[in-house]
């Protein structure tokens, strides 16, 4: 019986190929979008973390005590993301007898040069405490993991390799165990190889024990670690935070920031929060977009089914007259819709598979998460799609049941048209569906318009410097070099050598130096003022730059002078500020000649004399495009040196030709160390491509939604014209012109469009606040975008109404009257 029902339903569906194709595409798109959205959100927020005892894992952050509103805001930002200083970890967390945690481990990452050929290979690795692998429940595939004996000072250096590094560079040879490899300036004995696909968050290719690598007693700089812990059995997060609150904040401040005015505290959050924070905004935007598309697709399908059911009323009436029971009629219609839903489900899963592959290739969507939390089509996602499909089928079942129950046999046989009751009900439902589709499409189009405007503005954004002719190179000095007497002359020599490279017209360097201890903002006081500059108007870091830095980058010198070689270590402490700071710190006055008192650490303050003002620029911002203008303070490199300089080279030719010479020069000057060279224009283009991808994502869905809405408008008007053929014929017989009849149909379309805009535009004003954080140069309520969307929707809607209106205008009154 089931096979017979399927054959009958297939024959009926094949008589309406347009309906089948449109219905399958509409629902398939909606189900596919829903599957992709669920996979994205499920991968981070609901799926179990790929670690042993994942529900007991927590991440610890070292945050400021919230004594002021600004500190409270900073603490909120740090929750789950700010690392813990190495000293806090080594001197407190590793040795404290916690009752709420049974394991604590720390890790960080960095780059090293793998020397296995003519040119060192840059590889990323992790520095971990010896129990990290055990805490995560991962064992090496070959060899052993770190032991406590490996994590002590003075022992031979050891390394664990990733499976990929072992296979690519060591030929998957099991003889690698016990061999010595050179990473940067140190040699390590290989003791293990981790299993395939284990990279632990950042694509690590090797791991080193923490103490021999980071211990501050052998290194001039103190590092920080990401610290995770495992709750003891039967303990919860609240109990752990209560225990952390009993620790003396002064011990943390002394361990992590000597002399800091802001005391620190430790706070624990679920480990999952570390990953959800990195994709929160995208997931929210993506979910909102998919919800609109799913709504449009479902209403379009309902519209199609309704139109088909109305046109099937005469067939249903004839079958009723021939003795078919209502239950049989409902079963036949339901079987047809079940086949449509089944085909749409298969198509939706194929679409979701393709779309998730696209998301995997989008660099902007990469986030800090371990392997195993990728977007994928698994049993959970397929189950979610099946639930959506069953829900859609359940809603569609209402239509055949209602149509069969309302079918008037005698009237349909006599008139050959839908009853007035069915016609009015169907018409109202159709129009309601179309209004919802238009409103949803308007919301998507407004979001797409705002993103397009953002991309256009960012494409023509004045960065405050000329990125096109610049190449940038960064060395990594060995730890013994990180003393001023060593790295300052090396930095000067590197600048000189880079200036001699063929094609280089200028070379300079810059370093970012904190003005206060980690986690704090230094107090900056202007001359004659007792209160410091508010922290939201004061920089937390300063930039030490070489003479000629601003000229190399093309940053405008507005007033005063640039740094010179005379602004040395023994010279008068001087500074240059940007225009943003000059206008707000000394409104209505000339900043040149003013003084600033910088109290970074009590008893170690310094008074700086401002000698120049430069234009606002984003050269020092990590996010070149979306960074907000703010205060910047520059110092001569000799007066505020740093062991972490970045070199900028300007050329009159193609800057890409400098990359290899820069890498070779850095590798010769700082042997056995990781070096990097890149085009500044590429950095800008990479950031723009991320914003552009967000825009394309919204635009694509918006256009699909608009297309579905236009299909709905066309279907409604076509049905209305068919239902009103006799009325149109009477109007024509009474003298109505073709233009008047076409205008009547277009007026119906206009009412639908106006209703959709009246609902969609206010909803868009509320919904687009979701993307406010990724907009630039426009607001979520930009009137030009809303006006463009309203006009665009009206134009294309009337375009979709053209063919039904033309068909109505061509109705022959004689033929129509004969059919009455």
Write the layout of secondary structure elements.
Elements (H helix, E strand, L loop, with lengths): L1 H13 L2 H29 L11 E8 L4 H10 L5 E2 H8 L7 E14 L6 E8 L3 H5 L5 E2 L14 E4 L1 H8 L9 E4 L2 E8 L12 E4 H5 L9 E8 L5 H9 L3 H8 L7 E7 H41 L1 H9 L4 H35 L18 H28 L2 H7 L4 H40 L10 E5 L9 H16 L4 E11 L8 E4 L14 E5 L3 H5 L3 E4 L13 E5 H7 L9 E5 L6 E9 L18 E4 L9 E6 L7 H11 L6 E4 H44 L1 H9 L4 H30 L15 H18 L1 H8 L3 H6 L2
Parallel strand pairs: 4-9, 6-8, 15-20, 17-19
Antiparallel strand pairs: 1-10, 1-11, 2-10, 3-4, 3-10, 5-8, 6-9, 7-8, 12-21, 12-22, 13-15, 13-21, 14-18, 16-19, 17-20, 18-19
Mean pLDDT: 79
The percent range for helix content is 40-55%
The main sheet comes to: 11 strands, mixed
Poorly predicted ranges (pLDDT <50, ≥5 residues)? 253-260, 409-422
Beta-strand content bin: 15-25%
Q: How many whole angstroms does the radius of gyration measure?
A: 34 Å
The SS-based structural class is alpha+beta
End-to-end distance? 41 Å
- Strand tally: 22
Q: Per the principal axes of the C-alpha atoms, what is the gross shape?
A: globular
Task: Please give the count of helices.
Answer: 25
Which structural traits does this protein have?
50% helix, 25 helices, eleven-stranded mixed beta sheet, 820 residues, single chain, 16% strand, alpha+beta
Structure description:
The chain is an alpha+beta fold. Helices cover 50% and strands 16% of the residues. It is built from 25 helices and 22 strands. The strands form two sheets. Strands 1, 2, 3, 4, 5, 6, 7, 8, 9, 10 and 11 form an eleven-stranded mixed beta sheet that branches. Strands 12, 13, 14, 15, 16, 17, 18, 19, 20, 21 and 22 form an eleven-stranded mixed beta sheet that branches. The two termini are 41 Å apart. Mean pLDDT is 79; it is low at 253-260 and 409-422.
């Amino acid at each position: 019986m089931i096979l017979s029902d399927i054959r009958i339903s297939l024959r009926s569906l094949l008589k309406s190929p347009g309906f089948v194709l449109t219905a399958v595409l509409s629902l398939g798109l909606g189900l596919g979008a829903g599957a992709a959205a669920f996979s994205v959100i499920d991968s981070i927020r609901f799926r179990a973390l790929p670690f042993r005892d994942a529900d007991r894992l927590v991440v610890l952050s070292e945050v400021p005590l919230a004594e002021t509103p600004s500190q409270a805001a900073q603490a909120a930002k740090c929750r789950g993301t700010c690392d813990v200083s190495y000293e806090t970890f080594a001197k407190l967390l590793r040795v404290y007898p916690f009752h709420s945690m049974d394991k604590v481990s720390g890790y960080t990452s960095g780059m090293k040069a793998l020397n296995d050929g003519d040119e060192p290979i840059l590889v990323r690795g992790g520095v971990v405490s010896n129990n990290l692998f055990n805490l995560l429940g991962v064992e090496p595939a070959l060899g052993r993991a770190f032991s406590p004996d490996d994590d002590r000072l003075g022992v031979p250096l050891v390394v664990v390799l990733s499976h990929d590094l072992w296979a690519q560079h060591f030929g998957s040879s099991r003889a690698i165990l016990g061999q010595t490899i050179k990473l940067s300036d140190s040699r390590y004995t290989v003791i293990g190889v981790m299993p395939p696909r284990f990279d632990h968050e950042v694509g690590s290719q090797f791991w080193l024990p923490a103490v021999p690598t980071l211990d501050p007693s052998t290194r001039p700089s103190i590092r920080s670690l990401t610290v995770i812990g495992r709750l003891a059995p039967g303990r919860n997060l609240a109990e752990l935070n209560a225990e952390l609150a009993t620790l003396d904040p002064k011990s943390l401040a002394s361990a992590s920031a000597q002399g800091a005015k802001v005391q620190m505290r430790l706070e624990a959050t679920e480990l999952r929060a570390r990953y959800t924070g990195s994709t929160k905004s995208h997931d929210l935007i993506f979910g909102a977009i998919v919800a609109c598309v799913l709504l449009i697709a479902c209403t379009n399908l309902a519209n199609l089914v309704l139109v088909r059911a109305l046109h099937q009323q005469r067939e249903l009436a004839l079958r009723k007259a021939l003795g078919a029971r209502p239950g049989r009629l409902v079963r036949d219609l339901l079987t047809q819709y079940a086949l449509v839903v089944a085909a749409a489900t298969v198509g939706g899963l194929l679409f979701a598979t393709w779309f998730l592959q696209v998301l995997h290739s989008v660099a902007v969507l990469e986030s800090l998460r371990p392997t195993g939390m990728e977007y994928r089509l698994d049993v959970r996602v397929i189950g979610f799609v099946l639930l959506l499909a069953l829900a859609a089928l359940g809603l569609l079942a209402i239509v055949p049941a209602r149509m069969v129950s309302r079918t008037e046999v005698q009237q349909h046989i006599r008139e050959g048209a839908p009853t007035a009751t069915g016609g009015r009900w169907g018409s109202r439902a159709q129009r309601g569906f179309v209004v919802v589709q238009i409103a949803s499409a308007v919301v998507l189009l407004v979001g797409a318009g705002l993103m397009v405007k953002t991309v256009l503005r960012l494409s023509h954004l004045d960065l405050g410097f000329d990125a096109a002719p610049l190449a940038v190179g960064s060395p990594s000095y060995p730890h013994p070099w990180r003393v001023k007497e060593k790295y300052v002359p090396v930095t000067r020599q590197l600048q000189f050598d880079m200036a001699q490279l063929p094609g280089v017209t200028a070379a300079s360097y810059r370093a970012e130096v904190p003005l206060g201890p980690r986690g704090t903002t230094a107090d900056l006081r202007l001359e004659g003022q007792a209160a410091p500059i508010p922290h939201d108007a004061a920089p937390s870091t300063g930039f030490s730059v070489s003479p000629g830095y601003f000229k190399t980058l093309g940053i405008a010198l507005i007033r005063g002078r640039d740094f010179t070689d005379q602004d040395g270590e023994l010279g008068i402490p001087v500074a240059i500020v940007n225009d943003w700071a000059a206008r707000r710190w000394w409104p209505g006055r000339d900043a040149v000649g003013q003084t600033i008192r910088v109290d970074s650490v009590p008893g170690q303050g310094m008074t700086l004399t401002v000698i120049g003002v430069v234009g606002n620029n984003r050269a020092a911002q990590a996010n070149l495009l979306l960074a907000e203008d703010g205060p910047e303070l520059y110092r001569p490199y000799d007066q505020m040196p740093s062991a972490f300089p970045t070199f900028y080279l300007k050329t009159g030719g193609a800057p890409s030709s400098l990359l290899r010479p820069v890498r070779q020069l850095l590798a010769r000057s700082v042997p056995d160390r990781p070096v990097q060279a890149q085009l500044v224009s590429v950095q800008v283009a990479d950031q723009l491509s991320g914003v552009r991808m967000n825009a394309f994502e919204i635009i694509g869905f918006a256009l699909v939604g608009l297309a579905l809405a236009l299909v709905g408008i066309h279907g409604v008007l076509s049905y209305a014209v068919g239902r009103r053929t006799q009325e149109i014929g009477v109007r024509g017989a009474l003298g109505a012109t073709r233009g008047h009849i076409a205008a009547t149909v277009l007026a119906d379309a206009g009412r639908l469009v106006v209703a959709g805009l009246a609902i969609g535009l206010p909803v868009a004003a509320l919904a687009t606040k979701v993307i406010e954080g990724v907009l630039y140069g426009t607001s979520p309520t930009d009137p030009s975008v809303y006006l463009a969307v309203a006009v665009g929707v009206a134009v294309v809607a009337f375009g979709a109404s053209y063919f039904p209106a033309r068909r109505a205008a061509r109705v022959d009154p004689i033929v129509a009257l004969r059919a009455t």
